[in-house]
Inverse folding.
């Protein structure tokens, strides 16, 4: 359980850090600077060919550099507005940045950029707008995909490095002492499923490496109740204390018996007394 629990904590921190990096103002500024500069650099150095074999520079003749600067300015304007909307949208509750919606947003940005680049190209070169748009969209997908990919990899690498270097919060431990006041079991509170009273003993059911384990402790349930309550367990039956965080559902049988199904495969169902039903159900 400790291994699984640490993985879950680490995974959650990774996702939170990734989300914070991709939607922050740092990402906003990096995109604004990188895309126009990379566009100018790439087009000046490589001057890619078009579908009909004509290179892009020949379209603008002797004004190629000036038009590249104007096209880069359009990219900067489109990117600043669209990315600003994205940054503000990310701060609304419920909007989470994951790989899927981030890729969709980047594709939408490329289409919007191509719409305005196509308009400029159509006006300057006196070409049909649709042809100009398709030309610019092809150019966007060919050229600007590189800075998007590089920035995404940089931000992800930084986020993962930041998440891994953050110290993990120590998990709270439950300490079980027997009737002789001797410490017998030290275990994370989140790993405990339930306690079962068995005359002069208490059976402690808990998770270890994803498997259900049992520890038999010579003690009374009454002596463990306060410590268990402080760690989130609740009385559900005269013989049982249960961890509500592991209860998947409360099921009422036809005979009126109430059973708690746990979220662990192979776990026994736990009886819930009517007097404790409301208290347990409110915690789910």
């Amino acid at each position: 359980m400790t291994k699984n629990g640490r993985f879950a904590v680490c995974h959650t921190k990774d996702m939170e850090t990734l989300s914070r990096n991709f939607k922050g103002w740092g990402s906003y500024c990096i995109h604004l600077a990188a895309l126009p500069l990379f566009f100018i650099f790439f087009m000046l150095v490589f001057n890619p060919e078009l579908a009909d074999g004509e290179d892009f520079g020949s379209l603008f003749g002797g004004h190629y550099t000036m038009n590249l600067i104007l096209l880069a300015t359009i990219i900067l304007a489109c990117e600043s507005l669209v990315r600003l909307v994205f940054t503000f949208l990310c701060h609304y509750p419920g909007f989470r940045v994951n790989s899927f919606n981030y890729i969709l947003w980047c594709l939408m940005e490329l289409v919007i950029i191509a719409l305005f680049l196509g308009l400029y190209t159509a006006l300057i070169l006196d070409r049909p707008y649709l042809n100009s748009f398709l030309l610019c969209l092809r150019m966007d997908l060919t050229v600007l995909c590189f800075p998007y990919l590089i920035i995404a990899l940089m931000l992800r690498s930084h986020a993962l490095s930041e998440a891994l270097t953050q110290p993990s919060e120590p998990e709270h431990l439950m300490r079980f002492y027997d009737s002789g006041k001797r410490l017998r079991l030290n275990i994370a509170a989140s790993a405990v499923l339930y306690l079962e009273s068995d005359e002069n003993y208490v059976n402690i059911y808990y998770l270890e490496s994803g498997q259900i384990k049992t520890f038999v402790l010579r003690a009374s349930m009454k002596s463990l109740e306060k410590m268990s309550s402080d760690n989130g367990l609740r009385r559900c039956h005269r013989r049982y204390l249960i961890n509500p965080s592991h209860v998947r559902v409360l099921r009422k049988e036809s005979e009126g018996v109430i059973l708690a199904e746990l979220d662990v495969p192979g776990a026994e169902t736990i009886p819930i007394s009517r007097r404790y039903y409301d208290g347990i159900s409110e915690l789910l």
